[in-house]
Amino acid sequence: MGLVRTANEDGWRVGGIAGDAPDGNWSGSLPSTRPWVLVADGMGGHGSGDVASSVALDALCRHFDRDGASDMRSAIAEANWAVFSAMDEAPGRRAMGTTVAGFRRAGGAVSVFNVGDSRVYLARDGGLSLLSVDDTMPRRAAGRSHALTQSLGGTSVPLALDPHVVSVEPVAGDVLLVCTDGLTDMLGEAEIVAGLLAGIANPAAALANAAVEAGGRDNVTVVVTEF
Predict the structure, then answer these.
(1) 189-217 exposure pattern, b = at least 16 Cβ within 10 A, e = fewer
(2) Domains in the chain: how many in total?
(3) Would you say residue 5 lies in a domain?
Protein backbone atom coordinates (compact mmCIF):
# COMPACT_ATOMS: atom_id res chain seq x y z
CA MET A 1 0.00 0.00 0.00
CA GLY A 2 1.08 3.55 -0.71
CA LEU A 3 0.38 6.55 1.50
CA VAL A 4 -2.51 8.16 -0.40
CA ARG A 5 -5.06 5.64 -1.70
CA THR A 6 -7.52 3.90 0.61
CA ALA A 7 -7.54 0.60 -1.30
CA ASN A 8 -4.98 -1.46 -3.17
CA GLU A 9 -6.12 -2.21 -6.72
CA ASP A 10 -2.82 -3.80 -7.82
CA GLY A 11 -2.48 -7.53 -8.26
CA TRP A 12 0.18 -10.07 -9.21
CA ARG A 13 0.63 -13.71 -10.12
CA VAL A 14 3.88 -15.66 -10.30
CA GLY A 15 3.90 -19.03 -12.05
CA GLY A 16 0.25 -19.49 -11.07
CA ILE A 17 0.82 -18.49 -7.44
CA ALA A 18 -1.83 -15.99 -6.38
CA GLY A 19 -0.71 -12.66 -4.96
CA ASP A 20 -2.26 -13.29 -1.55
CA ALA A 21 0.71 -13.55 0.82
CA PRO A 22 -0.32 -12.13 4.23
CA ASP A 23 2.27 -9.36 4.20
CA GLY A 24 2.24 -8.84 0.44
CA ASN A 25 5.62 -10.53 -0.04
CA TRP A 26 6.59 -13.81 -1.70
CA SER A 27 9.90 -15.26 -2.79
CA GLY A 28 10.86 -18.60 -4.29
CA SER A 29 11.82 -20.43 -7.48
CA LEU A 30 9.65 -20.37 -10.57
CA PRO A 31 8.69 -23.68 -12.19
CA SER A 32 11.07 -24.72 -14.94
CA THR A 33 8.28 -25.40 -17.49
CA ARG A 34 6.68 -22.29 -18.99
CA PRO A 35 6.85 -20.00 -15.95
CA TRP A 36 5.17 -16.61 -16.02
CA VAL A 37 5.02 -13.35 -14.10
CA LEU A 38 2.02 -11.02 -14.21
CA VAL A 39 1.35 -7.60 -12.66
CA ALA A 40 -1.85 -5.55 -13.04
CA ASP A 41 -2.90 -2.11 -11.83
CA GLY A 42 -6.65 -1.55 -11.59
CA MET A 43 -7.84 1.86 -12.78
CA GLY A 44 -8.81 3.73 -9.65
CA GLY A 45 -10.89 6.38 -11.40
CA HIS A 46 -13.35 3.87 -12.84
CA GLY A 47 -14.42 1.94 -9.75
CA SER A 48 -13.83 -1.75 -9.02
CA GLY A 49 -10.25 -1.53 -10.21
CA ASP A 50 -9.31 -4.31 -7.79
CA VAL A 51 -11.93 -6.56 -9.41
CA ALA A 52 -10.68 -5.73 -12.91
CA SER A 53 -7.07 -6.52 -12.08
CA SER A 54 -7.99 -9.79 -10.34
CA VAL A 55 -10.28 -10.93 -13.18
CA ALA A 56 -7.64 -10.16 -15.81
CA LEU A 57 -4.88 -11.97 -13.92
CA ASP A 58 -7.04 -15.03 -13.26
CA ALA A 59 -8.03 -15.20 -16.94
CA LEU A 60 -4.40 -15.06 -18.07
CA CYS A 61 -3.44 -17.78 -15.58
CA ARG A 62 -6.24 -20.02 -16.85
CA HIS A 63 -5.13 -19.42 -20.43
CA PHE A 64 -1.51 -20.29 -19.66
CA ASP A 65 -2.54 -23.42 -17.74
CA ARG A 66 -4.73 -24.55 -20.61
CA ASP A 67 -2.63 -23.64 -23.63
CA GLY A 68 0.94 -22.66 -22.92
CA ALA A 69 1.83 -22.66 -26.63
CA SER A 70 -0.64 -19.96 -27.75
CA ASP A 71 0.53 -16.43 -28.47
CA MET A 72 0.28 -13.57 -26.02
CA ARG A 73 -2.13 -11.51 -28.08
CA SER A 74 -4.83 -14.17 -27.91
CA ALA A 75 -4.25 -14.58 -24.16
CA ILE A 76 -4.64 -10.83 -23.58
CA ALA A 77 -7.74 -10.69 -25.79
CA GLU A 78 -9.28 -13.46 -23.67
CA ALA A 79 -8.43 -11.58 -20.47
CA ASN A 80 -9.93 -8.39 -21.90
CA TRP A 81 -13.16 -10.22 -22.67
CA ALA A 82 -13.22 -11.64 -19.14
CA VAL A 83 -13.04 -8.11 -17.70
CA PHE A 84 -15.96 -6.97 -19.85
CA SER A 85 -17.98 -10.07 -18.98
CA ALA A 86 -17.45 -9.37 -15.27
CA MET A 87 -18.81 -5.82 -15.58
CA ASP A 88 -22.43 -7.02 -15.54
CA GLU A 89 -22.01 -9.35 -12.57
CA ALA A 90 -22.37 -6.63 -9.91
CA PRO A 91 -23.27 -2.92 -9.63
CA GLY A 92 -20.49 -0.36 -9.89
CA ARG A 93 -18.35 -2.27 -12.35
CA ARG A 94 -19.27 -0.45 -15.56
CA ALA A 95 -16.10 0.58 -17.47
CA MET A 96 -13.80 -0.92 -14.82
CA GLY A 97 -10.34 -1.46 -16.23
CA THR A 98 -6.77 -2.50 -15.56
CA THR A 99 -3.28 -2.49 -16.97
CA VAL A 100 -1.30 -5.70 -17.33
CA ALA A 101 2.41 -6.39 -17.81
CA GLY A 102 4.61 -9.40 -17.47
CA PHE A 103 6.46 -12.15 -19.23
CA ARG A 104 6.15 -15.84 -20.05
CA ARG A 105 9.02 -18.17 -20.82
CA ALA A 106 8.71 -20.99 -23.35
CA GLY A 107 11.96 -22.83 -23.97
CA GLY A 108 14.82 -20.36 -24.09
CA ALA A 109 12.85 -17.32 -25.21
CA VAL A 110 10.88 -14.99 -22.96
CA SER A 111 7.83 -13.15 -24.30
CA VAL A 112 7.50 -9.76 -22.59
CA PHE A 113 4.12 -8.02 -22.91
CA ASN A 114 2.10 -5.10 -21.64
CA VAL A 115 -1.09 -3.10 -22.09
CA GLY A 116 -1.30 0.21 -20.22
CA ASP A 117 1.52 1.79 -18.23
CA SER A 118 2.76 -0.98 -15.98
CA ARG A 119 6.32 -1.74 -17.03
CA VAL A 120 8.91 -4.46 -17.66
CA TYR A 121 12.64 -3.73 -17.42
CA LEU A 122 15.69 -5.84 -18.21
CA ALA A 123 18.74 -5.33 -16.00
CA ARG A 124 21.91 -6.62 -17.67
CA ASP A 125 25.60 -5.82 -17.15
CA GLY A 126 24.82 -2.95 -14.80
CA GLY A 127 22.37 -1.25 -17.16
CA LEU A 128 18.58 -1.03 -17.30
CA SER A 129 16.50 -1.33 -20.48
CA LEU A 130 12.77 -0.62 -20.72
CA LEU A 131 11.13 -3.48 -22.67
CA SER A 132 7.50 -2.39 -22.35
CA VAL A 133 5.72 0.60 -23.96
CA ASP A 134 3.58 3.04 -21.98
CA ASP A 135 0.08 3.39 -23.43
CA THR A 136 -0.39 6.97 -22.26
CA MET A 137 -1.40 10.30 -23.77
CA PRO A 138 1.37 12.82 -24.47
CA ARG A 139 1.86 15.49 -21.80
CA ARG A 140 3.37 18.89 -22.49
CA ALA A 141 4.11 19.86 -18.89
CA ALA A 142 6.74 18.22 -16.74
CA GLY A 143 6.00 14.72 -15.53
CA ARG A 144 4.29 11.73 -17.09
CA SER A 145 0.70 11.50 -18.26
CA HIS A 146 -1.50 8.94 -16.52
CA ALA A 147 -4.27 9.07 -19.15
CA LEU A 148 -4.24 5.59 -20.72
CA THR A 149 -4.74 5.11 -24.44
CA GLN A 150 -5.57 1.43 -23.98
CA SER A 151 -6.30 -0.95 -21.13
CA LEU A 152 -8.13 -4.19 -20.41
CA GLY A 153 -11.67 -2.96 -19.90
CA GLY A 154 -11.81 0.74 -19.11
CA THR A 155 -14.61 1.51 -21.59
CA SER A 156 -18.32 0.73 -21.74
CA VAL A 157 -17.95 -1.43 -24.87
CA PRO A 158 -15.03 -3.68 -25.88
CA LEU A 159 -12.35 -2.13 -28.06
CA ALA A 160 -9.67 -3.92 -30.07
CA LEU A 161 -6.36 -4.05 -28.22
CA ASP A 162 -2.86 -3.80 -29.66
CA PRO A 163 -0.66 -5.38 -26.97
CA HIS A 164 3.05 -4.70 -26.94
CA VAL A 165 4.94 -8.00 -27.22
CA VAL A 166 8.70 -8.46 -27.54
CA SER A 167 10.87 -11.57 -27.32
CA VAL A 168 14.17 -11.63 -25.41
CA GLU A 169 16.76 -14.34 -24.83
CA PRO A 170 17.86 -14.13 -21.17
CA VAL A 171 21.40 -15.00 -20.15
CA ALA A 172 22.73 -15.98 -16.74
CA GLY A 173 22.75 -12.98 -14.44
CA ASP A 174 19.89 -11.16 -16.17
CA VAL A 175 17.12 -9.67 -14.04
CA LEU A 176 13.58 -8.93 -15.24
CA LEU A 177 11.65 -6.35 -13.23
CA VAL A 178 7.86 -6.12 -13.63
CA CYS A 179 6.13 -3.29 -11.78
CA THR A 180 3.19 -0.93 -11.53
CA ASP A 181 3.63 2.81 -11.92
CA GLY A 182 3.63 3.22 -8.16
CA LEU A 183 7.33 2.35 -8.43
CA THR A 184 8.34 4.26 -11.56
CA ASP A 185 6.50 7.46 -10.58
CA MET A 186 8.52 7.65 -7.35
CA LEU A 187 11.95 6.28 -8.31
CA GLY A 188 14.11 7.06 -11.33
CA GLU A 189 15.84 4.40 -13.38
CA ALA A 190 19.18 5.08 -11.68
CA GLU A 191 17.61 4.42 -8.29
CA ILE A 192 15.90 1.27 -9.58
CA VAL A 193 19.03 -0.27 -11.06
CA ALA A 194 21.00 0.64 -7.91
CA GLY A 195 18.41 -1.25 -5.86
CA LEU A 196 18.70 -4.27 -8.13
CA LEU A 197 22.50 -4.29 -7.92
CA ALA A 198 22.73 -3.72 -4.17
CA GLY A 199 23.05 -7.45 -3.46
CA ILE A 200 20.25 -7.52 -0.90
CA ALA A 201 18.16 -10.65 -0.31
CA ASN A 202 14.80 -9.19 -1.44
CA PRO A 203 15.30 -6.34 -3.93
CA ALA A 204 11.58 -6.29 -4.83
CA ALA A 205 10.55 -5.48 -1.25
CA ALA A 206 13.37 -2.95 -0.93
CA LEU A 207 12.29 -1.11 -4.08
CA ALA A 208 8.63 -1.11 -3.04
CA ASN A 209 9.56 0.26 0.39
CA ALA A 210 11.76 2.93 -1.20
CA ALA A 211 8.87 4.08 -3.41
CA VAL A 212 6.61 4.42 -0.38
CA GLU A 213 9.31 6.29 1.56
CA ALA A 214 9.73 8.63 -1.42
CA GLY A 215 6.11 9.72 -1.13
CA GLY A 216 4.01 6.66 -1.96
CA ARG A 217 1.51 8.50 -4.16
CA ASP A 218 0.20 5.17 -5.46
CA ASN A 219 0.23 1.53 -4.44
CA VAL A 220 3.37 -0.35 -5.44
CA THR A 221 3.79 -3.84 -6.88
CA VAL A 222 7.24 -5.12 -7.85
CA VAL A 223 8.32 -8.56 -9.07
CA VAL A 224 12.04 -9.20 -9.55
CA THR A 225 13.09 -12.38 -11.38
CA GLU A 226 16.73 -13.42 -11.48
CA PHE A 227 17.95 -15.78 -14.20
Answers:
(1) eeebbebbeeeeeebbbbbbebbbebebb
(2) 1
(3) no
Choice between 108 and 99, residue whose per-residue pLDDT is larger: 99
**Nearest Cα to Cα of residue 177 among 222, 116, 113, 210:** 222
- Domain holding 172: CATH number? 3.60.40.10
Instruction: Give the H/E segment covering residue 211.
Output: helix 203-213
Closest by Cα among 169, 186, 172, 188 to 220: 186
Query: Has residue 105 been placed in a domain?
Result: yes
Q: What is the pLDDT of residues 20-59, one digit of tens each?
A: 665 678 899 988 778 999 999 999 766 799 999 999 999 9
Full domain range(s) for residue 220: 10-226
Q: Looking at residue 95, what DSSP letter applies?
A: T
CA distance linking residue 183 with residue 209, whole number of Å: 9
125 CA to centre of own chain = 24
Within a domain: residue 35? Answer: yes
Once rounded to an integer, what is the mean pLDDT over residues 56-63?
Answer: 95
pLDDT tens digits, residue range 178-203? Answer: 999 999 999 999 999 999 999 999 99
Q: What is the DSSP letter of 148?
A: B
Q: Is residue 1 situated within a structural domain?
A: no
d(CA 187, CA 183): 6
pLDDT of residue 58: 95
Looking at residue 23, its pLDDT comes to 66
Taking the C-alpha atoms of residue 40 and residue 87, their distance in angstroms, rounded to an integer, is 17
Beta bridge partners of 35: none
Q: What is the pTM of this model?
A: 0.94
